[in-house]
């Protein structure tokens, strides 16, 4: 699935465990409730994607673009978001235990409590 253009596709509830979607275009793709345990989204474009209630545990989003992505209720435990751009994303109720946000762009992100919005210029942690 590397490099595929799945923009706008409805993959709700899909089983994508261990799938490689590196450099894939998933703009506006619906992944609600999908199981993407240990999937690789390295350098993929997930802008405006809906990943609510998805299992993204141990997934690799290194250098992924996730601007305005909906991740409410997602399981991101031990996910790697190194240098990912999450500007404007919604993480309300997401489980981030052990997630790696090193050098991730977090400006405008709605944090897990659903109230806090990360300040512009937040990198690596929500300020």
Could you explain the architecture of this structure?
The chain has 127 residues and is largely without helices or strands. It has no helices and no strands. It is globular, with a radius of gyration of 13 Å. The model has no long low-confidence stretch (mean pLDDT 98).
List keywords for this structure.
127 residues; little secondary structure; 0% helix; 0% strand
In short:
The chain is low in regular secondary structure.
Q: Which runs of at least 5 residues are low in confidence (pLDDT < 50)?
A: none
Question: What is the tally of helical segments?
Answer: 0
Q: How large, in whole angstroms, is the Cα Rg?
A: 13 Å
Percent in strands: under 5%
> Strand pairing plus helix content: what structural class?
little secondary structure
The tally of strands reads: 0
| Alpha-carbon distance between the two ends | 35 Å
Spell out the blueprint of helices and strands.
Blueprint: no helix or strand
């Amino acid at each position: 699935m590397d490099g595929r253009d799945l923009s706008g596709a409805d993959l709700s509830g899909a089983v994508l465990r261990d799938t490689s979607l590196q450099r894939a275009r998933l703009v506006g793709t619906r992944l609600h409730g999908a199981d993407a345990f240990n999937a690789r989204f390295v350098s993929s474009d997930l802008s405006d994607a809906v990943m609510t209630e998805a299992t993204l545990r141990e997934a690799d989003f290194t250098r992924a673009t996730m601007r305005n992505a909906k991740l409410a209720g997602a399981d991101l435990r031990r996910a790697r978001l190194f240098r990912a751009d999450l500007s404007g994303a919604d993480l309300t109720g997401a489980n981030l235990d052990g997630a790696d946000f090193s050098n991730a762009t977090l400006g405008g992100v709605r944090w897990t409590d659903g109230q806090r919005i990360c300040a512009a210029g937040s990198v690596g942690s929500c300020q």
